[in-house]
Amino acid sequence: MSIRPAARIWLALLITTVVVPANGGTDDDLRKFSLELVHQSPGFLLRLRPYDHVSPTGTRRIDVMLGKPWGRWNAYLYWKADNHERMWLGTRVDTTWRGPGGRLSLVLQFRGFLGLNADSRKHLYLISNLRFRLDSAGRVQPGLLGFSKVTARQDPVLYLGPSLALRFHRHLGARLSYGPNWLGSGSLLYLKLYLYL
Question: What's the CATH code of the domain at 116?
């Protein structure tokens, strides 16, 4: 399958996400955009998110993950801080399961955080992403993304819905996902750009 039709779809969704005003939905309808730099070498993993923005809350965050691979598992020490003077330290553990033929994959990820000041509540994430490679190079991968978060003294959320992962170049990729909150009101529209170093 050529990437050109998928790129057109991605561009249309990107324009819709960026151009549609943030007040087009309710306060529970979140739009999230992040840029992630990824470096992998034998024995060392680095993920840096210099820009992570959520509207309509206006929250901007920086994330730094330093990790190490262990077979099919990756483990990271994770630090993050936002523009509301909140800061956390935590861990991230993830693994990928691949089905027969390698076309189907399931990524499972756990993150746990402790707040580093009084305004930063501890919280946990469980993220799953089921993907199917339409082409042998994995340039186009539709799927299903589950994004759940439990925060101290807040209602839990579970956003579950379709996703589309694209690899434009060996150094550039993207993932777009949308899901309603199955445990309450609102939804999450999430666009992430990846730069592979």
Answer: 2.40.160.40
Classify the phi-psi angles of 148: left when phi > 0, otherwise alpha if psi is within -120 to 50, otherwise beta.
Answer: beta
| Residue 26 located in a structural domain | no
**Other residues' Cβ atoms within 10 Å of the Cβ of residue 72:** 10
24 occurs within a structural domain: no
- In the chain, how many domains are there? 1
**Nearest-angstrom CA–CA distance, 141 and 164:** 6
Closest to 88 (Cα-Cα) out of 61, 58, 120 = 120
What predicted TM-score, i.e. pTM, was given to this entire model?
0.85
Q: Which long-range contacts (CB under 8 A, 24 or more apart) does 87-91 make?
A: 87/115, 87/116, 87/117, 87/120, 88/113, 88/114, 88/115, 88/116, 88/120, 88/122, 88/123, 89/113, 89/114, 89/116, 90/114
The domain in which residue 126 lies consists of 3-19+31-196
Tokens 């730099």, residue located: 37
| 133-164 per-position pLDDT tens digit | 999 888 999 999 999 999 999 999 999 999 99
Q: Which of 184, 188, 191, 112 is nearest to 146 (CA)?
A: 188
